[in-house]
Amino acid sequence: MSKAKNKEFSTMMKRLMWVALVFFGLALIISMVAKKEAAIVQQVNIDVTPLEGENYLINEEDVLLTIERSFGFPLETMPLGAVNMERLERVLKEEPFVLEANAFVNAENVVNISIVQRQPVLRIIDRNGSNYYLDENAFKMPLSKHFSARVLVATGNIPPYVLDYQGNIEDMLHNLFDLATTIRNDELLHPMIEQIYVNNKRELTLVPKIGRQKILFGRYISVEDKLKRLKIFYTEALPYEGWKKYHTIDLNFEGQIVAK
């Protein structure tokens, strides 16, 4: 055999060996994937990030029940190939208390789930008796059987919830959410105001945690100015006059506060 033919044969054999190695590698990978997918879920680890004060609106048992309801079986009885992580995350995000959900499988065939809870900022009791929370993103949440969030409560003549209420600046829910958010973000007012009452004229009354005063806020207009005047009254008048002297603090008069 000539040197040229020997070289050609050697090159062909090398190519065949490389092709064989590639096919062998693919077959090995496919086998490992199939074995992984056939393996049963060994355990489910759930980590729910608590709210302030180590409180939970949803717990591990609730998460497991949600998963079993959706998939039909506990995850520990299912092969990994039957557990779609994207579907699992989607199912958990549909829960009203869940803001974010992430899931992955580790090398030990353990499903790890992390949950971020929604943060309530306002509790609504409307004119029809419906009772629910609004979270930081204005999302409607039911009450939790595990924990009652200590947030502002709005009561009175509040209309029923509608999905697009945030798009209507005249909607009372929109106004209440904005006011609650403003109060929550204010270092002075947040610890002092506990309730907002809406009367039949769409006028607001704020109820403080300390004292028996009623703060007549009026219509939802000149909000920044009214709250500024209220804060001045709290910091400059009440410390000298005392909490028991006044029964009403009226913010309806432009540029002044009428206290009785």
Which stretches are poorly predicted, pLDDT < 50 over at least 5 residues?
A: 24-36
Would you tell me the overall average pLDDT? Answer: 84
How many H/I helical runs?
A: 5
> What portion of residues belong to β-strands?
15-25%
Radius of gyration: 31 Å
Number of strands: 12
Quote the CATH topology of the largest domain: Rossmann fold
CATH architecture title of the largest domain:
3-Layer(aba) Sandwich
Helix content: 25-40%
CATH superfamily of the largest domain: Cell division protein FtsQ/DivIB
Q: For the report, how would you describe the main beta sheet?
A: 9 strands, mixed
What class would the helix/strand composition place it in?
alpha/beta
What letter string, H or E per element, gives the SSE order? Answer: HEHHEEEEEEHEEEHEE
Number of domains: 2
Rounded to the nearest angstrom, the distance between the terminal CA atoms is 117 Å
| Shape field | elongated
> How would you write the strand order of the largest sheet?
6-5-4-7-8-9-10-11-12
CATH classification class of the largest domain: Alpha Beta
Model description:
The chain is of the alpha/beta class and 260 residues long. It folds into 2 domains: 43-117, membrane protein fhac (Ubiquitin-like (UB roll)); 120-259, Cell division protein FtsQ/DivIB (Rossmann fold, 3-Layer(aba) Sandwich). The protein contains 5 helices and 12 strands. It has helices at residues 3-38, 60-71, 85-93, 172-184, 223-241; strands spanning 43-49, 98-105, 110-117, 120-125, 131-135, 140-141, 152-156, 193-198, 204-208, 214-218, 248-250, 258-259. The strands form 2 sheets. It has a 9-stranded mixed β-sheet with strand order 6-5-4-7-8-9-10-11-12. The protein is elongated, with a radius of gyration of 31 Å. The N and C termini lie far apart (117 Å). Mean pLDDT is 84; it is low at 24-36.
